[in-house]
Amino acid sequence: MAILPQILHSPHPRLTAAAASPSRAFCRAPRHLHASASRTRGQGRGRLATAAGASGPGPSSPEPYPSESDDGLVELPLFPLPLVLFPDATHALHIFELRYRIMMHTVLQTDLRFGIVFAGNSGSAAEVGCVGEVVKHERLADDRFFLICKGQQRFRVARVVRTKPYLVAAVHWLEDRPPAEPPAHGEDAEALATDVEALMRDVIRIANRLNGKPEKEVGDLRRGLFPTPFSFYVGNTFEGAPREQQALLELEDTAARLRRERDTLRNTLNYLTAASAVKDAFPSSPSSG
């Protein structure tokens, strides 16, 4: 079944209730790190999720982050969550578990940055994540936090430094690599970005029609972005498919990321076009009585 990206997402960041189980913390750093993360279910977009957590003081002498180790890696506190953060995207978080409240005390007293890694229901977390920088926060009376973070650079975990009182890993930064060979005609990053934007317009137009909204002209989706940041913007709209988002985040080739997004959007457009045709062929009859 085709993946249906959430193109029509709200411009306001949603709030995620964030916690991770200390009993299944990251123990080693193989291909996928092991962790567990929970997310409040049943929350709608824009709603404040609630979760209980014991209060506790922050660390008395926080260490600065990120700090560079002797081998050139950077130490970064990590937060496993059931979401994927992209560069320049924003997420709202509700911090309630003790270990992560301690982490936030440290982060807020240093450089405001921590790493977010996707953790699914299987209890394993991906080794590629994205730095989140706290741009706004509110500390509550019981020591919980509401905060908004913005995605910065991507990273890959090299090894776990420690797991208590919260997870810290040594990471190295990821950047997209230039193509090894000249791309085929129409397959360069700029042309792919143009194709992806056109497909997004069509998906939004038909989705609006199916939802009973007016099929008005879609505005400028790219907003002058270069292909690489635009590919991250598109990936962020695939909100209902976090594993697909994680695959996009891990790619180190802008053109490859845009090609994958183009394929997903084509599948989505085919699905929506068929659904629209069925709706036109079998219009719902007005209710009687």
From TrEMBL:
Residue ranges annotated as coiled coil are: 241-275
What Pfam families is this protein classified in? LON_substr_bdg (PF02190)
Q: Which UniProt keywords apply?
A: Coiled coil, Hydrolase, Protease
Q: Does the keyword Protease apply?
A: yes
Q: Which GO terms describe its biological process?
A: proteolysis
SMART domains hit by this protein: LON
Q: Where is this region: Disordered?
A: 34-70
Which InterPro entries does the record associate with it? Answer: Lon_prtase_N, Lon_prtase_N_sf, PUA-like_sf
Q: Give GO MF terms, alphabetically.
A: peptidase activity
What Gene3D superfamilies does this protein's entry cite? LON domain-like
Q: What is this protein called?
A: Lon protease 2
- Please report the organism this UniProt entry assigns to the protein: Zea mays
